[in-house]
Description:
By secondary structure, the protein is α+β, with helices and mostly antiparallel strands. The protein has a single domain, classed as Beta Barrel (Lipocalin). The protein is 20% helix and 35% strand. The chain has 2 helices and 11 strands; from the N terminus they run H-E-E-E-E-E-E-E-E-H-E-E-E. Strands 1, 2, 3, 4, 5, 6, 7, 8, 9, 10 and 11 form an 11-stranded antiparallel sheet that branches. A hairpin with a 4-residue loop joins strand 5 (76-80) and strand 6 (85-93). The chain is globular, with a radius of gyration of 20 Å. The relative contact order is 0.17.
Amino acid sequence: MRAVALSLALLTTMACAPKPDDPTTPSPSIVPGGAAQATGALDGEWRLARLAGSTIPADIPPVQWPSLRFDAKEGAVAGAAGVNRYRAQYQRTGTDGITLSPGAMTRMAGMPEAMELESKYVAMLDKVRRFRMDNGQLVFLGEDGAELARYSRAP
């Protein structure tokens, strides 16, 4: 008797649950960048402090350090990649998930050291899957949970 009641309860729950392939059913775990998800901790401008565990090379002036700024209203992230400027859309998933979609970027040349840093930085942005806050710093994490980049609030 218990098995029958449990089966009926399970079937009722499944029948009432939203269908994942139903385009009219919004997904509660995916929040587009324009919602309230970036308010608070992510809001504002961030300057890169570490990339793949390394500090920014001393021969690169601070004005060329990569940075980013979240715009919750537009669902966008924009900033400096080192030499060039970029802008992309972002999407939050769950409480700590984040992905950046391909975006637009200027194409200027610069010092070889700055161009190398920029190349590594842009490649890192494609790998971001999660974030966390650590003592006031923004930390981007890859799919495996490894730290990709660490940012400090811009002055």
